[in-house]
Amino acid sequence: MRIEGKGLIDRAHPVRFRFDGVSYGGFEGDTVASALLANGVRLMGRSFKYHRPRGVLTAGSEEPNALMEIGTGAARTPNVRATMQEIYEGLEARSQNRVGPLHRDLLSINDLFPGVLGAGFYYKTFMWPRAFWEKLYEPVIRRAAGLGALSGQPDPGRYEKAFAHCDLLVIGAGPTGLMAALTAARAGADVILADENARLGGRLLSETEEIGGKPSALWVADMLDLLRDTGNVRIMTRTTITGAYDGGTYGALERVGQHRPETPDLPLECFWRIHAGQAVLAAGALERPLAFPMNDRPGIMLAGAVRTYLNRYGVAPGRNITLFACNDDAHRTALDLIEAGIRVTAVIDSRADATAQGDYRLLAGAQVIHSKGRRALREITVRHKGRQDTILTDCLAMSGGWNPSVHLTCHMNARPIWNDRIKGFVPAPGAVPGLTAAGACAGIYATHACLTAGVDAAKTALKALGKSAPGVAVPAASDQTGAVQALWYVDGKGRAWLDFANDVTTKDIRLAARENFRSVEHMKRYTTQGMAPDQGKNSNMAALALLADATGRGIAETGTTTYRPPYVPVSISAMAAGAGGKGFAPERFTTSHAATVARGAPMIEAGLWYRPGYFPARGETTWRQSCDREVAMVRDAVGICDVSTLGKIDIQGPDAAAFLDFVYTNMFSTLKPGRVRYGLMLREDGHVMDDGTTARLSDTHFVMTTTTAAAGQVMTHLDFVHQALRPDLDVRFISVTEHWAQFAIAGPRSRDLLNSLLDSPIDGESWPFMACGPVSVHGVAGRLFRISFSGEHAYEIAVPARYGDALFRDLVARAETLGGGPYGMEALNVLRIEKGFITHAEIHGRVTAFDIGMERMISPGKDCIGKTASMRAGLTGPEREQLVGLKPVGAVKQLTSGAHLFEPDADPVRVNDLGYVTSVCFSPTFGTYLGLGFLKNGRARHGDTVKHVDHLRGLETLCEICDPVFFDPEGARVRG
Amino acid sequence: MRITCPLCGDRDSREFSIRGHETYLDRPAPDAGEAAWDNYLHLRDNPAGETAELWYHGAGCAAWLRVRRNTLTHEVLKVDLVRDLTGGDHAD
Ligand SMILES: [Zn+2]
User: Fold this and answer.
1) What does the pLDDT read at residue B27?
2) Domain match, A507 and A543 both
3) pLDDT (tens digit, 9 = 90+) per residue, A705-745?
4) What's the burial of A22, exposed, middle or buried (CB within 10 Å: 0-12/13-18/19+)?
């Protein structure tokens, strides 16, 4: 029922929305919950296990009952708290966890058998037979128990991630937070003020008290102006700080677009990482429900929430409202209701010495012991002075006192401390470095004390930031705190709910204690108390107190469960924002990319790079046709391949050669300028890290190439070796991978092609195998290396990257006139396997120089990284699996990489495993499959037969063991 | 966690990669013997409290850093350039 003249809603802007298909009206500033209450709708959901009718309990993000699906189709979001969801024109809300209409949920039959579904029922009931669990019990339970459901389709919603930095993060914009933010901003600090509500003010929006002689809502509006005037405050409303992390980092979830009709340029949510020099936690407190029998009916809600609906939204949640409390604070609910003209039937206070603060009927020393009403509250039973009376009422406002919101202070392992004055836990000092808890979240409840605490907390933060604090006057405000009695539960006939969302009752906690789940963590897991979306915000204290009583301990001794982030549920979509599909992964394109794609080459990912698989020619329908043609083209004429993705490191300095001697196993100081050498690099543990060629351009200038895969790892390694181990060496190096476009020109016609291109022709004498040097390409200064990864007479030519596209097109055109063309990764792989060249398929991190037959490359005359460890026992010898070539010799002709090797007559099981296959290809040159692999004592077994077994593909192939170099073992062609 | 790089300033830990304990700075001589090399390569304490580790500012200045930090509180106590510890010179 809407109350005229009350509330902060915008009555000039009516809004229509739908709940379960029925259209309702509300106003801008309403939540779904406040608008439904205004329309007299009290039934908003069904409970998790028993499918009991439930209404709204709270007015905040801790709501356990009024969880709804918002939106339709793929974009719908389940478990949205109706107390936080603002209404907008056309909003679609649906109740969840029901079969059939909400008011006649067919699964409410569960409510008739609460004994079956008590704590631990999963463990006890469904033990046997085992197969029934998967096929019968679990599907049935999953159908019956649960909250909202996802659409099952990809979420089309837009989400973002963002970062923010500030001197001071103020968490919560109630009286404490507002004063803290203003104090810090006036001191010149860069402040972020975050609050999860749509507007600033916190509890002040829900109360009728005055600050500085003004209604508190007006004072809040003035504060907003003052904060804006400083120019130092970034105000983030609808932003919940979800977690406190190391080094002053905070997670935050901002509801950017969820409160308005779909707006294409706004994300729904944004997940923030805020880095703050200091933080003030002014998160306030959460009111506690009272666990009396049948306390879960729609119409029973928290007293503070009733004041919020009345004062902030102008809504009376009932016509005859009763109050049940154990503290003074709750009495102002009655005063506010009477002031607004709502009938207050009685105030039931559990304290015998409670006094009325106004003109209402007070039942002191009384308790509510029962309630009735099928779909909403109709009457309650009160025990008072030994009598039981029935009171007809449609709304019961309850209050068990308040719990400071200590959650964030516990995210870094600290435990809160029990405070007997407020009957609640308060933050441990210094719980989160750089964070000061102030105001209600620190157990300070009087408004004036909160305002003062805000100023003081800001001063503490400013001091840590090295800034001097300005004088900020604290306005006049209420200094009432009020007394509270510890009342956690009321005994009586019937179930008393603690955890509304997970349907956990006082009986379940007692059962857990009886069955010896005495630890609060065990109790939680056994009963599921505190494991619902509200994470126990409404139930932890009472459950803890009940467990303490049941086990004969105090509350402080029993302790709390662990508070973990996030403070409110965070959608995976928000945390994964930007990570769908390619997301933020960069794409590295070579200079030949456009020309390659234009030729229809399918691109394959190599790390972040994209490289062509093959270049389909007219009439080719399979990759093998293209690959076979490209291999033959290189062997017979000339092929062009972009090899720019290999890491290129420019190394200069008087000690460059000495540095290379230390990082490579072989010698580079003996390499002459104008020559290239193959180098092998080990890790310090004696295993192979990477390989590649390094060219000496002058006495003090080298260019190292790494494999594409290990370019980053090698650079990190070189930095380590230089900075940590060999700072004595005068050498500098930098990655130049992107600066040079480099192309392989491979095949018997490679020199013919080059001589049609270069400004000065070359010959075999001036450019022998492994020569390098400067060349001029159409007047552009480039570099030429006579190196080969195909076994053919081949070169690699490098030009500054800006000429790469033009050079690639030119090279391909010239190659085509010579019967050649471009080739891709598939052909490159075949060419290198035929030649027995290794890649990271072979040097996969567990192989040594000995394993790949390169132990003689470890120079005896010098130390190098990995040398000592490479000589350890067990890293050399016949027991090692050694690199071999494999050729099929039986009826089956196929090889697969990943297959394992066995003796031909051995059972192909693990104990008989002799090795494995790392690379295979179909070789058009030999007309057969070829493989490279590692075989125990393999080098001594050339000519023997092994059985290649691929259990995954069901393949068995007999192979001849041979030298890994299948093609041109003498190397005549490469020198040709 | 955040690390203050002496060259780049206060940065998110995701800009860095860790190599392990600072033991890696004390590379034994080639003839130091098996025990010394075993210790260098493989044997590490797992301290609950203060430790000193080597971190690489790969998404920043490419400096190797020695980070003294507390494994219990995640507090970073001190960050040094490895170059300063090993007597290396600075790139200019
Ligand atoms: Zn740095």
Assistant:
1) 97
2) yes
3) 999 999 999 999 999 999 999 999 999 999 999 999 999 99
4) exposed
From CA A573, how far away is CA A226, in angstroms rounded?
A: 36
Q: Which helix (H) or strand (E) holds A921?
A: strand A915-923
For an interface test with A, the pick among B86, B90, B92 (most A C-beta atoms closer than 10 Å) comes out as B86
The Cα angle at residue A875 between residues B31 and A871, in degrees rounded to 5: 20
User: Identity (one letter) of the amino acid at A743?
Assistant: F
CATH code assigned at A615: 3.30.1360.120
List the beta bridge partners of residue A687.
A848
Whether A724 is covered by a domain: the verdict is: yes
Residues, chain B, total?
A: 92
DSSP H helices, A482-592, are 506-514, 520-527, 540-550, 555-558, 572-575
- Assess if residue A866 is contained within a domain: no
Per-domain boundaries in chain B: 2-86
Q: Show Cβ contacts of residue A824 under 8 Å, excluding neighbours closer than 6 positions.
A: A601, A611, A612, A613, A614, A615, A626, A627, A630, A641
Pairing, β A92-95 against β A10-19: parallel
User: For A361-394, what is each residue's pLDDT tens digit?
Assistant: 999 999 999 999 988 999 999 999 999 999 999 9
For chain A, report the end-to-end CA distance as a whole number of angstroms: 96
Helix (H) or strand (E) holding A142: helix A138-144
Is residue A405 a contact partner of residue A142, using CB atoms and an 8 Å limit?
A: no
How many domains does chain A contain in total?
6
pLDDT tens by residue, A825-863: 999 999 999 999 999 999 999 999 999 999 999 999 999
In a domain, A852, yes or no: no
Q: Which residues of A touch B77 (CB under 8 A)?
A: none
Written out in words, the top-level CATH class of the domain with range B2-86 is alpha beta
B22/A contact by beta carbon, under 8 A? no
Task: Give the CATH number of the domain where residue A712 resides.
Answer: 3.30.70.1400
Q: Measured between CB atoms, does A722 come within 8 Å of chain B?
A: yes
* Residue A151 scores a pLDDT above 60: yes
CB of B20 within 8 Å of a chain A CB? The answer is no
Q: Residue A924 maps to which CATH number? A: 2.40.30.110
Distance from CA of A178 to the nearest CA of B (A): 28
Chains A, B: CB contacts under 8 A, how many?
71
Supply the pTM of this predicted model: 0.89
Residues A281 and A208 in one domain: yes
Distance from CA of B17 to the nearest CA of A (A): 10
- Taking alpha carbons only, the member of B46, B67, B47 closest to residue B56 is B67
* Global ipTM: 0.97
Whether residues A504 and A397 fall in one domain: yes
A747 and A629 co-located in one domain: yes
Decide which of A482 and A144 is more confident.
Answer: A482
Is residue A378 included in any domain, yes or no?
Answer: yes
* Contact at CB, A247 and B76, closer than 8 angstroms: yes
* CA distances to A475, B38, B69 from A959, in Å: 90, 40, 55
- Does A266 share its domain with A166? yes
The Cα A820–Cα A814 span in angstroms is 8
- Check CB contact of B79 with chain A, cutoff 8 Å: no
Domain that holds residue A56: 10-111
